[in-house]
């Protein structure tokens, strides 16, 4: 048998047989196409706003006449703006549709009440109008739900130590916390057998009642109140504060945006009490990180029985380790603290409690201030329990400190390389030291002088300093920009 190709137009006989008219025709299939587009009301409103807009109106009329402006495109009576390879719908500056777009990008359930950057990213993918960034920043800053967060509700599993951090307020009621639990915890872990709270029994009872109502549960569950059960609440709060201090910005305005990342970091770290990370105890595996791409991939998949046995063994080991840790903590609590031994020339950190530095005036929460300042050098042993410390002159404090407020400074070993650059040397201008200004933080009028709180490039927050306007000749452009941003005129 030999197969030979023949073009379809010449292969008439088989083609005719395959299309015999007496073959039954199948029932026709109706296809329904669903497409998304702007409603006619929104489209008409945009067209009207185009015509009335002082900046875009002439461009719109030119588009109607076939004169397309540079960067703009005209399609279906709507104007599109192309910038850096991205085409977005142009919205008139004073169009009422802006408010709807801002609300959808910030308030909706798919937006999540995030901060400025995430809200702005949601918007600029699809639309553009003049000063869209400023409008977005103002909208987010004046959002009641977003700006009123001043506390964190912390949920911790007692065994695995898995934690969830939920932005909240200090006035949150039992009803509010129940909704937080339902929205953030129940969907992932289900209902717990008990709740241990650092709030009073009435609060915990109301929390349970509201949670039962939301779940439509008639079963009466008991509540547990142990304000000093094992100090887990205090330990968790202290850990969270430490993480926030490390990453929060100078104005403490981004702490709520840090919570998801810090929650991941905490749950991925090995807990000293259990010996395992909360992620591993909860799921039996570690989450994949970028560093995992460097390791050899594991193609073996354990059987269900093997996985369950390994997980049961891991949880048993964690329970034993947790009990040993609690016993050790109780034993250590009964011992006296051993004093540190310092000597002249040592590098130390100084506890920041009761020390006022200039930047404190822009830090709204004392609990998120740096806990320690430094490192500083011990210059002289003033007494058996106190040292003279080389603190900067702008601290304006007495330089002798008790050893209780000192802590040894541990520099990074050379094998790990330098983690932070040394502060830059000053520039000599007209025979005087000049330091480079990093940022202008705040303005005040003090003793009839215009003063600005400055941060210096390469230096920590403790070096921030109030400087008179008369001393800022070499930073005139930065001062002018700050005055314009704050609406200052003098």
TrEMBL record:
<keyword id="KW-0378">Hydrolase</keyword>
<keyword id="KW-0548">Nucleotidyltransferase</keyword>
<dbReference type="GO" id="GO:0005634">
    <property type="term" value="C:nucleus"/>
</dbReference>
<dbReference type="InterPro" id="IPR036397">
    <property type="entry name" value="RNaseH_sf"/>
</dbReference>
<dbReference type="InterPro" id="IPR056924">
    <property type="entry name" value="SH3_Tf2-1"/>
</dbReference>
<keyword id="KW-0460">Magnesium</keyword>
<keyword id="KW-0064">Aspartyl protease</keyword>
<dbReference type="GO" id="GO:0015074">
    <property type="term" value="P:DNA integration"/>
</dbReference>
<dbReference type="Pfam" id="PF24626">
    <property type="entry name" value="SH3_Tf2-1"/>
</dbReference>
<protein>
    <submittedName>
        <fullName>Uncharacterized protein</fullName>
    </submittedName>
</protein>
<dbReference type="GO" id="GO:0006310">
    <property type="term" value="P:DNA recombination"/>
</dbReference>
<dbReference type="InterPro" id="IPR041588">
    <property type="entry name" value="Integrase_H2C2"/>
</dbReference>
<dbReference type="GO" id="GO:0003887">
    <property type="term" value="F:DNA-directed DNA polymerase activity"/>
</dbReference>
<dbReference type="InterPro" id="IPR012337">
    <property type="entry name" value="RNaseH-like_sf"/>
</dbReference>
<feature type="domain" description="Chromo">
    <location>
        <begin position="435"/>
        <end position="490"/>
    </location>
</feature>
<keyword id="KW-0238">DNA-binding</keyword>
<dbReference type="GO" id="GO:0003677">
    <property type="term" value="F:DNA binding"/>
</dbReference>
<dbReference type="InterPro" id="IPR016197">
    <property type="entry name" value="Chromo-like_dom_sf"/>
</dbReference>
<keyword id="KW-0695">RNA-directed DNA polymerase</keyword>
<keyword id="KW-0808">Transferase</keyword>
<dbReference type="InterPro" id="IPR001584">
    <property type="entry name" value="Integrase_cat-core"/>
</dbReference>
<dbReference type="InterPro" id="IPR050951">
    <property type="entry name" value="Retrovirus_Pol_polyprotein"/>
</dbReference>
<dbReference type="GO" id="GO:0046872">
    <property type="term" value="F:metal ion binding"/>
</dbReference>
<dbReference type="GO" id="GO:0003964">
    <property type="term" value="F:RNA-directed DNA polymerase activity"/>
</dbReference>
<dbReference type="GO" id="GO:0006508">
    <property type="term" value="P:proteolysis"/>
</dbReference>
<keyword id="KW-0233">DNA recombination</keyword>
<dbReference type="Pfam" id="PF00385">
    <property type="entry name" value="Chromo"/>
</dbReference>
<dbReference type="Pfam" id="PF17921">
    <property type="entry name" value="Integrase_H2C2"/>
</dbReference>
<keyword id="KW-0645">Protease</keyword>
<dbReference type="InterPro" id="IPR023780">
    <property type="entry name" value="Chromo_domain"/>
</dbReference>
<dbReference type="GO" id="GO:0004190">
    <property type="term" value="F:aspartic-type endopeptidase activity"/>
</dbReference>
<keyword id="KW-0239">DNA-directed DNA polymerase</keyword>
<keyword id="KW-0479">Metal-binding</keyword>
<keyword id="KW-0229">DNA integration</keyword>
<dbReference type="InterPro" id="IPR000953">
    <property type="entry name" value="Chromo/chromo_shadow_dom"/>
</dbReference>
<feature type="domain" description="Integrase catalytic">
    <location>
        <begin position="121"/>
        <end position="286"/>
    </location>
</feature>
